[in-house]
Amino acid sequence: MAADSDVFKALGDATRRAILDELTDKDGQTLFEICGRLTMKHGLASSRQAISQHLAVLEQAGLVRTRRQGRYKFHHLDTEPLRAIVERWPIDREEPNP
Amino acid sequence: MAADSDVFKALGDATRRAILDELTDKDGQTLFEICGRLTMKHGLASSRQAISQHLAVLEQAGLVRTRRQGRYKFHHLDTEPLRAIVERWPIDREEPNP
DNA sequence: GTTATAGGCAAGTCGCGGCTTGCCTGTCAA
DNA sequence: TTGACAGGCAAGCCGCGACTTGCCTATAAC
């Protein structure tokens, strides 16, 4: 379903946002690849199961799509659900006059 | 400071999003006014203290600014912090071709 | 075959966040 | 001055979510 609520909940966690950052940097990574990168860059707690559960949340929110291939599962970023939440409140796009 | 983390955390709660919706509909409301409206429209749990704490979170995130006047405290929406989070990930703005 | 790799599932722990409860401060009207 | 109204503060309860632990399945390499 990917309700707005799920999207906001998914974005509410710092580790999940870091995962989205990672997929933005390199799309189509596997679970272990993401784990490795997260432990490298950020000092985030990133055990395999933790990341797996985070990915499940992101997938349910529609922010991540998966593609199975053999024993690998590639994760792809999908920013489409972000459009709805972006347009929810009026955002001033103009720069403040100095 | 209003770190990105605070903004996402603030947006993670449904009641707080409803408050932002309310302020979008009518800016500059007081605490009791918001309480009344929330109980009207949504069946959300919206005791005075609960809403007060939610407003504190929104204020810390920079999404709400307050203005004191006598015994009233008016709450104003500020969508500026949303700009940063909107631009964090690439969002496809084109409509899908039908 | 056997072993290592990539991932899944389920139960359990634990801290944080949302909400309540109770009481207090400050402002306005009578 | 007294009472009603708008809001604040602090401690406590409690459920949910993040993380772990342990074990299991499946694909690929040897």
UniProtKB/TrEMBL annotation, chains A, B:
Originating organism: Streptoalloteichus hindustanus
The organism's taxonomic lineage, starting at the top: Bacteria, Bacillati, Actinomycetota, Actinomycetes, Pseudonocardiales
Stored CDD domains: HTH_ARSR
The keyword Hydrolase belongs to this UniProt entry's keyword annotation: no
Domain HTH arsR-type per the UniProt entry, residue ranges: 1-97
GO molecular function: DNA binding; DNA-binding transcription factor activity
UniProt-listed InterPro entries: ArsR-like_HTH, HTH_ArsR_DNA-bd_dom, HTH_MetalResp_TranReg, WH-like_DNA-bd_sf, WH_DNA-bd_sf
Record key words, sorted: DNA-binding, Transcription, Transcription regulation
Protein name as annotated: Transcriptional regulator, ArsR family
